[in-house]
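Note to self: keep these together.
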Amino acid sequence: MFDGFRQSWVSVADGVDLRVRTGGCGPPVVLLHGHPRTHTTWHRVAPLLVAAGHTVVCPDLRGYGRSAKPPTTRTTVRTRSGRWPATSCG
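Structure:
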């Protein structure tokens, strides 16, 4: 899977590193996965784009795969009732 692609880490903020796979050479295409997936969603499409002459970038978005996870806080955890805790906005 992802033959010829490189795995690297990109620091996007202090303490936030994303795992990224890149391959190819040419105009860039960034492939973003949805919830609850990882960059491996694109394992069939990415090589086709490289063969078509693109640089392909497939990150694991924050909190997914091997990328950095945000800290667990009261506003990011559901309660047992299934309702979100109240937050103050403003």
